[in-house]
Write a structure and sequence with these properties.
HIT family, subunit A, alpha+beta, five-stranded antiparallel β-sheet, globular, 18% strand, 4 helices
Length: 141
């Protein structure tokens, strides 16, 4: 894509701090560095978000994630965990519309990165949960 910053990074038109590259995937440090080693993994093929993936592209991208995660763990033995984050579309906080996966090393609870789950745990009855699950199952091809 012509004005995509990540496509320009892949094509070496914009510099990056590359950590991994092969024929399908490019991985580089996020310039925001939420924590030390915060890495973005992107497909070389331009797709806006996960909704545009086919099985082959998903395999290409997501089978590289463990390899890069293990490299982060080896590079930073003090790392205690890892968040894998993929934001899709603007409402979900996607800001660059070339699909990318964040690998965010965690060094402790005070490393200034948090995600909040469970706040809506009591918002749905078991019957509503069954209906939601059935609605999704009916659409899986």
């Amino acid at each position: 894509m012509e004005n995509c910053i990540f496509c320009k990074i892949i094509n070496q038109e914009i510099p990056s701090y590359k950590v991994y590259e092969d024929e399908k995937v490019y991985a580089f440090l996020d310039i925001t560095q939420v924590t030390k080693g915060h890495t973005l993994v992107i497909p070389k093929k331009h797709v806006s978000d996960v909704f545009e993936y086919d099985e082959e592209l998903a395999t290409d991208v997501f089978t590289r994630i463990p390899k890069i995660a293990r490299a982060l763990e080896a590079a930073f033995p003090e790392m205690q965990g890892l968040n894998i984050v993929n934001n899709n579309r603007e409402v979900a906080y996607q800001t660059v519309f070339h699909s990318h996966v964040h690998l965010i090393p965690r060094y402790g609870k005070e490393d200034d990165f948090s995600m909040h789950f469970g706040k809506h745990m009591d918002d749905y009855t078991p019957e509503e949960m069954v209906a939601i699950a059935d609605q999704i199952k009916a659409q899986v091809n």
